[in-house]
Amino acid sequence: MKDLDLAIELLKKGDVVAAPTETVYGLFADSTNDLAIQKVYRVKGRPSCNPLISHVSSVDMAKCIADFSDKALEIAKYFWEINKAPLTLVLKNKSEKISKFVTAGLDTIAIRCPSHPISFELIERFGGPLAAPSANTSTSVSPTSFEMVQKDIGTKIPLTLDGGCCNIGIESTILDLTKDPSYVILRPGGVSKETIESFLGKKVLTASEANITGISAPGMMKKHYSPSIPVRLNAAFPIDNEAFIAFGKTDVSCDFNLSHNGDLNEAAKNLFSALKKFDIPEKYSGIAIMPIPNFEIGVGINDRLTRAAAKN
Ligand code: TXA
Ligand code: MG
Predict the structure, then answer these.
(1) Positive or negative, the Cα torsion across 144, 145, 148, 153?
(2) Residue 40 in contact with ligand 1 by CB distance below 6 A
(3) Is 128 in the pocket of ligand 1 (CB under 6 A)?
(4) What would the 3-class secondary structure string for 2-54 be?
(5) Does position 49 have pLDDT exceeding 70, yes or no?
(6) pLDDT of residue 213
């Protein structure tokens, strides 16, 4: 693939490239290159205190940059290699080479192994970890298609690889393995708490159950994923000029249904493009959304919606 050759060339030169993952599009740069990583923050307008996830193409590549206990190794092999699941693991950073801008100065590092063939091949051929936040301007909606990247940061970067629409549609689940005695889900996402607990055979905590706030999860800002018009949650019907987004069967006429069958995976896949599509201040006074069941990937959907609806 010609574009992939160009992407590798750009990354080797210390430039940035947007590419699809199975969750959302990411803005990739060499995790070991300070200038490249600083460029990522600049393009996104992201505060430098918010660390980035390093993406690897194998457990072996991850072992070069983080300390893995036997249990951590078992988790990585199961979720990354066998299940191809969007799980980010937070581990102790052990590499001197990783840019301090990637970890925002923390002694831990977030790592995941994307299953999308384009980002996977990008990392594999680059031959080392690539840091990537979602490929959007900081605090706005994460892109789940090539077109969404183009409309947002497209003109500020040299290349976006086109991989169509992302299958999962919300970001990876972040599981912190450095917290004792229980592992902690810092961000709900593409892999559910239920799936993680069933593999581990024990409970994991949510960030609020573990009393984790800004300090160990600097990026978990309340306002995020925000359209420019107000978002109203748990709506039964639209008020005034709101765009109405439904979920499942309803008699109320809607502008879009996240999933007619009430399928949470389909709803996650459609979520960000729907928020973007109806973000038209000239036409709508806001976006009203029906309740989404709060289990499995629905927890990740509700997390994004709560942040989208936050006032600050
Ligand atoms: O699905 C995803 O995870 C996407 C794709 C592109 O891989 N990436 C993504 O990155 O969502 P971003 O930058 O939008 O979110 C990364 C989150 C931030 O909330 C950040 O605070 C957290 O990961 N994070 C990164 N390193 C961390 C660390 N060492 N400890 C705790 N949280 C960390
Ligand atoms: Mg993001």
Answers:
(1) positive
(2) no
(3) no
(4) HHHHHHHHHHHCCCCEEEECCCCEEEEEECCCHHHHHHHHHHHCCCCCCCCEE
(5) yes
(6) 72
Residue range 258-272: mean pLDDT, rounded: 98
Mutate to test the pocket of ligand 1, among 27, 52, 184 (most ligand atoms within 8 A of CB): 52
What is the pLDDT of the chain when averaged over all its residues? 95
Question: In angstroms, what is the span from residue 25 Cα to ligand 2's centroid?
Answer: 10
For 1, residues 6+ apart whose C-beta sits below 8 A from its C-beta are none
* 243, β-bridge pairs: 287
Which DSSP helix (H) or strand (E) runs through 108? strand 108-112
19 lines ligand 1 (CB under 6 A): no
pTM for the full model?
Answer: 0.96
Distance CA(150)–CA(182), nearest Å, equals 41
Which of 88, 113, 119 most suits a substitution to test ligand 1, by most atoms within 8 Å of the C-beta? 88
Whether 214 shows a pLDDT value over 90: the answer reads no
The structure tokens 């993952």 sit at 21
pLDDT of residue 276: 96
CB proximity list for 82: less than 8 A, separation 6 or greater:
none
134 CA to centre of ligand 2 in angstroms: 4
Contact 284, 278 (CB under 8 A): yes
CA dist 270 and 275 (Å) reads 9
Looking at all shown ligands, the one closest to residue 220's CA atom is 1
